[in-house]
Queue: 4 jobs
Job 1
Amino acid sequence: MPRAECEREYPLRVTSDLVPGADDTADETPPDALTPRRMGATYAIGRLLITPLARLIYRPHIEGKSHVPRTGPVIFASNHLSFIDSIAIPVAAPRPVHFLAKASYFEEPASRWFFTAIGAIPVHRGAGQAALDALDQQRELLEAGSAVALYPEGTRSLDGRLYKGRTGVAFLALQTGAPVVPVGLIGTDKVMPVGAKAPSLKHRITVRFGEPLDLAHHGPASSGKARRLATDEIMSAIHALSGQELANAYNEVPAQNPIDRIKQVLPHERR
């Protein structure tokens, strides 16, 4: 697919900080707060330190690790219940995993080290050039044989139900040819509910990895029908793993202005 079409079709609706209604103005983040596209020593050392420590403290139930390809590009597509989902997946996965995180998390040295150490890639809010740069990073990581974690629902579920998936994750999978490993997270909303300042040690989480999905049979990334069918297959696999009640709706962020309200009402593909 030509790059121009790719940029037009994929607005990065794949993380809780890049969703409909988000501010299109980029965060005022200093250039030196951004990590390099290739993760270096900080990530390697951080993974060695944080992963065993987190497993010791939170004792996660991990199922289906044998389903995860140990080499080559892979996209982890997960339900999204809590802030710590992006920590739970890298901790449970048998290989390094990268994910998107709000650029403002990298402003302070301590938080910058932590998020870099767990594989986070800083992105600015909005759908401008900063978002396209994040897309380039994801694509480059996959082309280099790395793994990335994304959330098809777009933002966290506040009521625990599983919402319809947006097609951005499927687009990236169809474009790169990377297999998609569905992930079902259970209990992360109890360990760290929305609004909590710190995780709770009273609950355990379950991370379930499903069998890899090859979505190529749905068609090319340029086909809206292929993206929709591939997304539905991904969400069906996630539902089988998480056991959540289906919302049968998109997880829409409340419209911030009249333009956003019109966009939500008009027919359009939910990416």
Job 2
Amino acid sequence: MAHEYVFGLLGPICTANARKTWNELLKKEGVDGFFDFYRTHNKHDLVTRFSEMFLLERRGYVLSEPLQADAVSLMDTLDASVTDGRVDTVKNERGVLIGYFLGNNPEAILKLWMA
């Protein structure tokens, strides 16, 4: 079943519980979307994942801590929430990558992605 929106976690590991939690939130909020994990180890992998984001029209990614500093230079623009040189949330805004730092707050992240 295809979903209107696709989101994901970029990092070296992801627990099944993390995917379950995000997918339950999407369902609870009535979002026709799916959250998955995309194994990403380094800046080279980030470039690939961001390219896929455009090609496959993915809406947003959450970045695990080891990738947050590397992502900053790959963003088209940074939100004012990025104050310590780390991006933990990325939104694809019609082909423009916007980096944010929202902490571990899935509800706020989803609200941002759906705005």
Job 3
Amino acid sequence: MALTSSGYIKHHLTNLTWGCDATGHCGFAETAAQVKAMGFWAVHFDSLAWSLGLGLVLAIFLRRAALQATTGVPGRWLNLIEVLVDFVDASVRESFQGRPASRMVAPMALTLLVWIFTMNFMDLIPVDILPQLFRTAGVEHMRVVPTTDPNITLGMALYVFLMILFYSIRQKGFGAFVGELTLHPFNHWAFIPVNFILEGVSLLAKPVSLGMRLFGNMYAGELIFILIAVMYAANTLLGSLGIVLQWAWAVFHILIITLQAFIFMMLTIVYMSAAHETHH
């Protein structure tokens, strides 16, 4: 049965979901009703598998590059890795001013940069190629861009948030950390509830904005690619226009996927730098 335009879009925006319903039956959902029946603990299997798979491949390539590193003239691959490492290291040192904490933050920032960029890069693969391959293998739904799933982006943001809390308490002490939440900006006991609400919202806004910014931009980019793909089935004129738009948006999207990875990394560095500040 041929899909309508709306059905085509909905199909491409549906995740391969695994979970258990109220009756205890577990498996992959085939309909929206089955996904709803699974409730909160349903797992977007495709997003999780692609993010972990890409991370594993990336780790293997980076480890191989580290083992091949020499004092001689590096090749193109090693030269690219060195440029990335130097760039991230300079960005961290600029915020941390060469403090020992940068030894931990720099590897985390580098990991986030290259991992997010790799996941974003999947958006440049034509929208029908990989889903169609999986469909011929019997897998009905398959989304291949993990960062278009808020579960993935908010999961990474939650990790950054936990690191912020950990190093804030470690560097400042639990009492000083609580003091920042309760005695700022109004340094009086009567304003403790007001201060806690203001500072609490500000603190919680960090992971939410960090994850939702990445998700929103990548989801919009994916949706535009899908809408352009719909044009191919309309008529010859729109199909020809779709080819031009596909290439134009792909070129522009290279900037977007790079910029989003960079913004996530830089905000992480800034937040971690603030967590290490002890002068307040």
Job 4
Amino acid sequence: MELKDQIIFGRKPVLDAIKSGIVIDKILVIQSLRGEFEVEIRNKAKENGISIQRVPQEKLNKVSRNHTHQGIIAYLSPLKYQNLRTMLPEILESEKHPVLLLMDGVEDVRNFGAIGRSALAFGVDMIITFAKGNARINDVAVKTSAGALLNIPVCKEKDMEDTLSYLGSLGVTVLASSLDSEHYLEDIKVEGPIAVVMGSEERGVSKVTSDYADTTFKIKQSNKMDSLNVSVAAGIILHHIYNQQK
């Protein structure tokens, strides 16, 4: 699989790309960017759920290999994101027990890719990520997933709370992996449509997730290690669910 991280740079090319519907994951702008263009690009990015990061000029020079970037660079996505509110009702109608996977602070791109690989292996129907807080799905993520991320519907949403509320309104049970839980994975009974939330290795799931989760659980393990790598934990959790649904 030959993939490389694709970028476009320059004010008009980036703005035109957004307006034409090209899928952009992330935009870098020079720290000093101000004025009418800054307002326009910020508003367009917000409308399309694209995160913007202010960086020093040296960073832009390095990424663009010293080409004329005019203080802005956009990373293109290697995949096409799906529309959650269009696709999820279709999945719920066609599948008795669909499994969704939400990323809540999975910042390492290789962990993200490895989780995607387990998701495909264990029959996950959809991955939901967010414009901020998670690793960007780039060429490294796709390669680490062994191409799995190109073969599972992926939705990128703007807001975690809004998404969890929407899932609840459709009868999806939210299960969150949390070291603070008093329940263990093997005690969880998988029934109906579920969404599994994987959080940050350092911070766990967010407070929003904890507040919305129907059930939290943890993986039973020895006391020789505080926690598992998030991609390993995801594999164990998804395998458990897969076995219950067989």
